[in-house]
Design brief:
The structure is a homodimer of 317-residue chains. By secondary structure, chain A is α/β, with parallel strands linked by helices. At the A-B interface, helix 9, strand 14 and strand 15 of A face helix 9, strand 14 and strand 15 of B. Chains A, B: One of its GO terms (biological process) is riboflavin biosynthetic process.
């Protein structure tokens, strides 16, 4: 299942509004098929994995990070039927599909076909890998990642405003990879005016993957951009299950104050800027106590001399 | 030698102006003596280790984190003589003693006695463990640790000034242990007025170890405190080889601007304060480029939900 979830991440940010599922087909001790939801949402992970294992699937086990789809679509066959037709003997599912058109129906239907179904295997990990889909289904909005490149003392720029660069090349490359895992990227007016960011993905092989560009502000958006006037309007961003907020400090604060940040993606450079521009403006915190218990470290690694730290929301919302 | 260096840390902050040395005596594969410089500077590590191994030292090997002392003192015997008298066959030394009264003379003297001497084993690690002594000898001032308890966004207090507590109990306990590794602790006037910090060590067994309390400011010091009016005056703090600077933001900035910080000791809480008080005030950085290449991560560990990060000076000075 860990392998299936890892595969699911390949589709992250490219399958909206579909979930980015991962699937592995195993026969005996041999992996005979691997699949993940393709860009645009089709083929589904299960269809791809089954096709790869064609002719060998009888009696095999399928590991799917999400309950296979039950609902009919003009775009392709139902995964439950493909699984049954392929002679799969056992299906292991991480998370049930919250979409009301499936939501447990596939599990019941597969069992009715005499197929063994195990559920709840690494469900939290699977939901985290498909956080955008789950946020859309359960919260009615995209999952939001707030990305900040910070000095040790929490600054995103020197006192004179210069910010190129706080972090080193390995961290900036990683941030570009993370852009590719989001359907849309948002910056505030101030950042747009100061940096005119292209928000494209400047890495070999990813040049063509351009997430939607969203401006937080008022008035007419620049060419090629969409605009929203308030963080709560992210629900209106069509075709986006994962939104990355890239700053600046006012925009970061607006999303934090609205409690609309699900993941903090911090790149921390080993520098002190002393008196520089803080990365987060006033979030209207009522007290110090209120700041605690909201974030949980889920990943950390060195990228060159910088540290990447990922914090996940540690409370409901 | 790693064991000898680890022992040397037991004396850190308690042996000034003497070095905090660690020593291990090994015969065959058995450790027969362990010693570290005792509080106040005597007995020396070698004397303690040799006493422990009494009667077994003939032909043994001594590992000392610093070249044994050569100079005569009314307070005790010269370690080189103790070593020779004990019949030690080989002495392994991490770092040569920069004190001109010894500085290589012990190494030559021991060799002249027919004792094998190896030097330079883990010298950098040994110097780091005795940083206060080396700073005094080579820079004429104490080694300075800047301690900061910070939020993810680099704040040391909420916008309303409240700062108890940013970090959790495990991190605060660790900070108290670190106080015990310094001879003196310094805060600025603002912190003194705001917090009236006791700067004692509130941990079982360490209550009696009270580092000197130093105020950065002007005028008469409070009872039980000494005062200096500028960071460059730290050289005048008698009996202190290791100084911990505990804040606030102006004091941190003053030491950083004067390039007088050797170690950054950061306790990072998983909270965002957004618009709180930055931990470091203006340090007069001429450009963003000038901030880079100055700090190197040398230790990191989790303390409860907080992260401790230790950065060492990565440039000369």
């Amino acid at each position: 299942m860990r392998a299936a979830i890892a595969l699911s991440l390949r589709g992250q940010g490219r399958t909206a509004p579909n979930p980015n599922v991962g699937c592995i087909i195993v026969k005996g001790t041999v992996v005979i098929g691997r699949g993940w939801t393709q860009p645009g949402g089709r083929p589904h992970a299960e269809a791809q994995a089954l096709a790869q294992a064609d002719g060998l699937t009888d009696g095999a086990t399928a590991y799917a990070s999400l309950e296979p789809c039950f609902h009919l679509s003009p775009r392709g066959p139902r995964c439950v039927e493909l699984i049954a037709r392929a002679g799969i003997a056992r299906v292991v599912i991480a998370a049930a599909d919250p979409d009301p058109r499936t939501n447990g129906q596939s599990i019941a239907w597969l069992r009715a076909q005499g197929i063994t179904v195990d559920t709840g295997v690494l469900a939290d990990e699977a939901r985290a890998a498909m956080d955008g889909f789950f946020a859309r289904q359960t919260l009615g909005r995209p999952a939001v990642t707030l990305k900040l490149g910070l000095s040790l003392d929490g600054c995103i720029a020197c006192g004179d405003g210069s910010s190129q660069w706080i972090t080193s090349a390995p961290a900036r490359h990683h941030a570009h990879v993370m852009r590719a895992h989001h359907d849309a990227i948002l910056v505030g007016r101030g950042t747009w005016w100061a940096d005119k960011p292209r928000l494209n993905i400047r890495l070999p092989g990813l040049e063509d993957h351009a997430p939607q560009r969203i401006l937080l502000g008022h008035g007419a958006p620049p060419d090629g951009w969409a605009i929203i006037d308030d963080p709560t309007r992210i629900a209106d961003i069509e075709g986006a299950s994962r939104l990355m907020v890239e700053g600046g400090a006012q925009t970061a604060a607006a999303f934090l104050a609205a409690d609309l940040v699900d993941t903090l993606l911090l790149y921390r450079a080993p520098i002190i800027l002393g008196g520089g521009k803080p990365g987060v403006a006033d979030i209207g915190l009522p007290s110090l106590d209120a700041a605690h218990g909201r974030w949980r470290l889920v990943d950390r690694r060195m990228l060159g001399v910088d540290a990447m730290e990922v914090y996940a929301r540690a409370r409901a919302g």
